[in-house]
Amino acid sequence: MIEFTRHTLENGLRLIIHEDHSTPMAAVNIVYKIGSRNESPDKTGYAHLFEHLMFSGSKHAPNFDEPLQLAGGESNAYTNCDLTNYYDILPADNLETAFWLESDRMLNLQITEKSLEIQRKVVVEEFKETCMMPPYGDVWHNLMDLTFKEHPYRWPVIGRTIEHIKQAKLEDVQSFFDHYYCPSNAVMVVAGGVKHEEVVALAEKWFGEIPAGTKNNNSIPQEPVQQAPNVLHKKKEVPMDALYMAFHMPCRLDPDYYAIDLLSDVLCNGSSSRLFRNLKKDRELFADIDCYITGQIDPGLFIIEGKPAEGVSLEKAEAAIWEELTKIKEEKISDRELQKLKNKLESSLVFSESTVLNKAINLAFFELLSNAELINKEAELYQAITVNDIQRVAKEILQSKNCSTLWYEAP
What we know:
By secondary structure, the chain is α+β, with helices and mostly antiparallel strands. It has 15 helices and eleven strands. α3 (95-108) packs parallel to α8, α9 (257-268) crosses α15 and α11 packs across α15 (387-397). The N and C termini lie far apart (54 Å).
C-alpha cells in the first residue's frame, strides 16, 4: 500500500505527497498533460522537442543541471503519446533546490533562436539515428499510419516527418510552451524523506504565484471502429523479413485493459508462453517473436511482432500466428497457467514501486488520469481476471477485420 496525501494550489497545480522516511532521498516528479496526441498534424514532434528545450535554461537558472548536481541530485525526462514527464532525485535536505529549478522553468523558460537551433539539431540527429538509419527504424511511422486514420496516435512521438522539426519556428514553439506548460496542466509528486507540511509550504512558495494557464482540454478526434483489415507490404533493405500485426484495444482506464494485458502475457511472456513455445521453440518458425500492448490513455494497440526463421516465408509465419490466435479464442487456458502469469505480473508491479522515484512517476501518471488511488488497486484488478475474461477479450479484439498487418520483405 502506497500512502499519499493531496493538495491543490489555487492555480490548479495538483500536488501528491508520499512520505517514506526509510530513505534520505526525495524524488520530485512533474508530469505535463502534453504528448504527441496534442500536436497539430502539420507540426508534429513538438512535445518531444520540448523535452530537450526544458533543459536549455530559464531566467534564474541558465544551466538547469548544474545547481541540481551541486545539491547532490540528478534529473531526466521522457515524452510519450500522452504526456511529458520530468523528474529530479536528490537528498531530501536539499529539496528546495528542485522546487526552485522546476518552478523557474515552468514560469521563465528562456526560449531563444540560439537555444531552439541547438535543440532542433539534437532532435533532428536523433530522428536520423533512430528512424532513418536503422534497418527497421521507420516501423512506427508505417505501422501507426496504417493503423490509425483519425486519431493523432497515427504519428510517432519523435514526429511525423523530420521536416516538421527542421521548420519549427520560435513563435510556434513559444506558443506551444505558453499553452501547455502551466500549473493547471500539470501534476507534481514529491516522494521520499519529506513531510507533508514542508512540501505544501515549498509548493505554495515556489509555484503558488505562477498563473494557472489553460487546462489542456483539447478535442482529440476519436478513431472510428476498424471494419476491414489493413495491409502494407514493403520491400526494404533489412537483414531479415519482419512481421507486425496491430489490433485496436480499449483505453488505459477500460475495465478490460487488465484482461488484455494478461492475454498478451499468455501469448508471449516467457519460455512457456504460447507464441514463444509453439512457434519459436517447437516448430522453429520464428527467430524472434513478441507480443505487447501500448497502454495509452486513449484506445491503443495490441501488437504482435516477429522475424521468421531462415527459409520461412512471411505468408507461412503469419498463418502460423493466426492458428495460435484461433486456439486462444476457442480453447480456454487453464486456471494454473493464468495464476502463474498473475503472480509474475504482481511481482513486476511490486518491483516497479521499489524506489521513491518509481513511486513518484507512477503516482503522477495515475493522478494525471484523475485516479492516483488506482496505484493501490492494480494488483487486485489483475487477480480478479478469470480464464473466461481472457477468452472473451481474445474473441473481441483478435479479429482479422481489427488487424493492421505490416510486412518488411528483405531483398
